[in-house]
Amino acid sequence: MSAVQFSAMPTEDAVHLWNGGHDAYDRVPETMISGGNGYPCRHCLQNIDTGEPLLVLAYRPFPELQPYAETGPIFLHKQPCPRYQADEILPPILSSLDYIVRGYGSDDRIVYGSGAVTPRERISARAEELLGSEAIAYVHVRSARNNCYQCRIDKVEAPDAAIGATA
């Protein structure tokens, strides 16, 4: 039996940006004021409240440049926020009707045929199906309208009931 784990942007990436670092296009992030819904922070995986300052930047959630290393716009609270921790449940930012759920191999490249527009209530189940394939190392959740990166999903093995048993 396995389960899935939702992961936000790594804190070290967010700290780099909060400290004035450059984004994936080597630019300083832009500052905006949130107009309300539609500004999901990729670190805390919460929507950024109306009137709050935010950063708009190019983000590449891959370890190195290569043809499949998609880069796109994301939002981040301008002030530090805690990283999303309820990793076993659907993050609050996933509030649209549907998302693209797509698998990537251990080489960080898209596994062809794995991507599909998926209703919000089926995201966990679809991710678990994809992660059941040896070809898929992790999954991205992306906007079904704009393909923007939302979060990552990894497989988590359930503890083996036999561990700790005595013979």
Describe this protein's structure:
With 167 residues, the chain is mainly β. Strands 1-8-7-5-6 form a five-stranded antiparallel beta sheet. The chain folds into two domains: 10-77, 2-Layer Sandwich (first zn-finger domain of poly(adp-ribose) polymerase-1); 86-157, no CATH class. The radius of gyration is 17 Å and the shape is globular. The chain has helices spanning 11-18, 123-131; strands at residues 2-7, 30-33, 53-59, 72-77, 98-104, 116-119, 138-143, 149-157.
Number of domains: 2
Largest sheet: spatial strand order: 1-8-7-5-6
Large-scale geometry? globular
Strand content: 25-35%
Short overview:
This protein is mainly beta and 167 residues long. It has two helices and eight strands, in the order E-H-E-E-E-E-E-H-E-E.
Summarize the SSE layout with pairings.
Layout: E1 2-7, H1 11-18, E2 30-33, E3 53-59, E4 72-77, E5 98-104, E6 116-119, H2 123-131, E7 138-143, E8 149-157
Antiparallel strand pairs: 1-8, 2-3, 3-4, 5-6, 5-7, 7-8
What key attributes describe this structure?
167 residues, mainly beta, first zn-finger domain of poly(adp-ribose) polymerase-1, 2 domains, five-stranded antiparallel β-sheet, 2 helices, 10% helix, globular
